[in-house]
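Milestone 3.1: sequence recovery, worked example.
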């Protein structure tokens, strides 16, 4: 079992920045992929970005060039630096992990946090 706790959400004006953090605990040795998803009101949950243990990254087209995912394996943390935020980025952001090398794009994630709300006003 892996427990995930997100922090860093809040309200910001368009063009601003936020940094989300996620702390993993439990069976952290089993984590291979760490990532962020988001779900806006009335919309499906979507992948934002993920990073593998070897620091390979993948981003949704909508956030490329604006968001940066990073990972600290020493303290089992994953971060999402969000710059140039837009009202369309308003959503609840979820941290998630996967234990094996299979792509989350196809197989999804194993464990999820409870989410942190990001609100971007115009």
């Amino acid at each position: 079992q892996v427990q995930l706790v997100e922090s860093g959400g809040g309200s910001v004006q368009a063009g601003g920045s936020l940094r989300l953090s996620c702390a993993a605990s439990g069976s952290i040795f089993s984590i291979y992929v760490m990532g962020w998803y988001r779900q806006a009101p009335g919309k499906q949950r979507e992948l934002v970005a993920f990073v593998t243990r070897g620091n390979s990254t993948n981003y949704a087209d909508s956030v490329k060039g604006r968001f940066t995912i990073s990972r600290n394996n020493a303290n089992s943390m994953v971060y999402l630096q969000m710059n140039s935020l837009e009202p369309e980025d308003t959503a609840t952001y979820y941290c998630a992990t996967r234990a094996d090398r299979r792509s989350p794009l196809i197989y999804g994630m194993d464990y999820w946090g409870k989410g942190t709300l990001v609100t971007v006003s115009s």
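The chain has a mean pLDDT of 96. The radius of gyration is 13 Å.
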